[in-house]
Amino acid sequence: MSTKEKIMPPLVLTIICVISSALLVLAYNLTYVDTTGIITDKLSAGLTELYGSADDFTMLINDDGTVKTYDGVTSVIADNNGHTAFEITADGYSKGGLHLLIGFDENGAVCGISILTIGETPGLGTKVQDSAYLDRFKGITSPDFQVDGITGATYSSKGMNNAVETAVNAYSKLKEEQGNG
Question: Rounded to an integer, what distance in angstroms lies between the CA atom of residue 153 and that of residue 142?
Fold first, then answer.
């Protein structure tokens, strides 16, 4: 067997792999859609629940093009009327069991909480999504608040309190950055 016969099969296979890889990269670059800063249907539904409409809201973006986040906050969404919502995933009984949108009114007070998804224990931990419980958080403007937990849903209640505290702290930082603090 000559050297040419030994080299040709691996060489042809290598060329095929290089061409296939190049075509894959080209197809990816042609079809890639940047979803950074896009308000998903789930977030839109949460904003509508909090404010009656999601039409005028935009996700806040940093100067480098990344989504604005804070410690514990996945994204910040605001409109031109002073309404701001913080997307937060918090631990309750389940790790990451509370995916929330916590809204603030133009006066800097919590105006509502929308449950985007909940992975807490059905019947116990899911009691934190009852409107009577969520209404206890309305009007909070400081991280020094006290909302009693739900009996039997201690971890879920603590998770909700921690999420609201995270949102209040993030709201304060956002206002400081904007020069309104």
Answer: 24
Which residue type sits at 128? Answer: V
CA atoms within 13 A on the CB side of 31: 6
* pLDDT per position as a tens digit, 80-135: 888 999 999 998 888 888 999 999 999 999 999 999 988 887 887 888 888 888 99
What's the rounded Cα separation, in Å, for the pair 15 and 17?
5
Beta bridge partners of 75: 87
Exposed (0-12), middle (13-18) or buried (19+): which is 131, by Cβ within 10 Å? Answer: exposed
Bridge partners, residue 61, by sequence: 67
**CB of 10 closer than 8 Å to CB of 16:** no
Q: Which one-letter DSSP state was computed for residue 163? A: H
**Burial environment of residue 141 by CB neighbours within 10 A (0 to 12, 13 to 18, 19 or more):** middle
Host H or E run for residue 104 = strand 98-104
131 token code pair: 């409107």
Q: Please name which of 51, 60, 69, 36 lies closest in space to residue 112, comparing C-alpha atoms.
A: 51
- pLDDT tens digits for 17-66? 999 999 999 888 888 665 567 888 899 999 999 998 888 899 998 888 88
